[in-house]
Amino acid sequence: MRRYKAQIRRYRVSTRPKLRSRRLREFAAVAFLLVLGGAAALTLPRLSAEFPGWPEIARRAFPGPFVVVGVPASLEEPFSRTLAQAEGTSYAKAARLKASFPGVRAVRVRHDWIERRVRFEVEMRQALAKVVHGGRLRGHLAADGSVFMAPEELRPAVLPEVDLEGADAAERRRVAEFLAGFGGTGGVPGTLERMGFVSKAEGWEARLADGTTVFWGDLRWTAEKVARLKQVLEDSRRTLQGALTADMRYFEDGKIYVRLSRPSS
């Protein structure tokens, strides 16, 4: 048996020329399809700009149903009605929808080539505060600093007020970022009730629901200011009775001043 095994030899057999050629052709075909699909995916979004006839082709290719996603249930019907009545391509319809509803931040169009259906993905603005001036509601502040009239579905039941009079676009964006981050900082003794712009030099003034007034200054270091304000107010209330005023305009110099807003009775 050992002598028989010793006589066994193993040989590497090359693929036959015909089989090898066929495999190469199959591999080349698959690679070509992958490259073609990738090129199509990159090219289609640019056709509307580079090929004037593309929007009309897209309109004819998707003449049928569409679906709207990302909107509150109460707004689905008016949004769908606006899209159905709008003329032109799906992109023109999306632009019409955004122009018709200030609460819409963006509309993305997705074409389902298999079902020949258009998907409108809507991104709604969320209200961070009520914009007031002179005792009147002027709208609602969005995360990007813009002001719009928010339907009930896009605003919480309780919102702080903000007076933007005199604030430029940059300050409006900053206060929107401040309001968005204020709730996630751990909070202070007293819910934020109102923010008001004073001037470039003085910054902002805040009022808490417990009656505390805060000369906030500029809107940098929000998390640090909130944490330190919480400590200062808790300490001050052990000795001071009544509504407090905290001055944080010198926070950059390491100073916070606290006093009674008015003498306690």
> How would you sum up the global shape?
elongated
What's the alpha carbon Rg, rounded to whole Å? 32 Å
Report the portion of residues in β strands.
15-25%
Q: The biggest beta sheet, please?
A: 9 strands, mixed
Compute the number of strand runs.
12
Oligomer: single chain
Helix content: 25-40%
- Category from helices, strands and their pairing: alpha/beta
Residue-averaged pLDDT: 79
Report how far the terminal alpha carbons are from each other: 114 Å
**Annotation field: number of helices:** 7
Query: What order do the strands of the largest sheet run in, or round the barrel if closed?
Result: 6-5-4-7-8-9-10-11-12
Uncertain regions spanning at least 5 consecutive residues: 3-9
Q: What is the ordering of alpha helices and beta strands?
A: HHHEHHEEEEEEHEEEHEE
Concise summary:
With 265 residues, this protein is of the alpha/beta class. Helices cover 38% and strands 24% of the residues.
SSE layout:
Layout lengths: L1 H5 L10 H34 L3 H8 L4 E4 L3 H13 L4 H11 L3 E9 L4 E8 L4 E5 L2 E6 L5 E2 L12 E3 L5 H14 L9 E8 L3 E6 L4 E5 L4 H15 L7 E4 L9 E4 L5
Parallel strand pairs: 1-3, 4-7, 7-8, 10-11
Antiparallel strand pairs: 2-3, 4-5, 5-6, 8-9, 9-10, 11-12
Helix pairs in contact: 4-5
Attribute tags:
265 residues, 12 strands, 38% helix, alpha/beta, 9-stranded mixed sheet
